[in-house]
């Protein structure tokens, strides 16, 4: 039996019937608008950047010393909030393929997960109804573009806050702490983010912090497609969606995946043949809710939602969602990260 066939026989997702089964279960339905995947320049259908409800001058990268610091919480309305209210729906960019974070339950055909719970909390606060949401599934490499082109109001999709991204979008305070880690077959000799990656084929999602980490220190790993963005490129190593890496790993097309440990834990839970390598993540990262650059009223409102979401200790909405979705794969977390706010 070939290696690919061995993996195909072993790759059954618990409760899903395999990656292929999950892909079918995650098919687009009438309640979910799937954004078109643009390749190359990252635009949607050749559109130019649309006009936002507010505007701002991007902060210089060198001025960013504490990227997790966000605006003070507020319930005040502004242009972005008024636009959402006039529409009667919050448009949220999410994932539909990340187990336990944002995925479509094959039995109920509803989007569920930790990120989805937070989206519903935002909708309830602004519109009074947790179901007043239009979910739009967006790939990893289109999160920023979706905001820039006014395709979504917010992105809640395991998106790491960092200085580079703050030049393009605005972020709420952090709602989850994660870090990059290596995912590989249990039988692999790869031991983590170290010299054991030398000569190994490593897959990452395009536009991810995992790819940026490998650009800085690859340990000799092969992680870039030679003709990325051309017709000859199969996107084997750098892929639009993080789940694509798991499929390639299971087919034996790559040797390892570098991704957030929070996402990798969900993938390891789906497939008992893979595991996280290394004792702990090699980075510390924080997820935030992203909004269009300059949508300060919306960011401040989300920060107020997060204040309420964290409140209550072990019985807070945050902890209830964590216990429901993440505790099995990421045990021992006592609570959300403390918020940081800018002084001006």
Automatic annotation (TrEMBL):
Pfam families: SBP_bac_3. Keywords: Signal, Transport. It comes from the Bacteria. Gene3D superfamilies: Periplasmic binding protein-like II. CDD domains: PBP2_GluB. Residues 89-329 form the Solute-binding protein family 3/N-terminal domain. InterPro entries: Bact_solute-bind_prot3 (IPR051455), SBP_3_CS (IPR018313), Solute-binding_3/MltF_N (IPR001638). Belongs to the bacterial solute-binding protein 3 family. This is Polar amino acid transport system substrate-binding protein. It comes from Streptomyces clavifer.
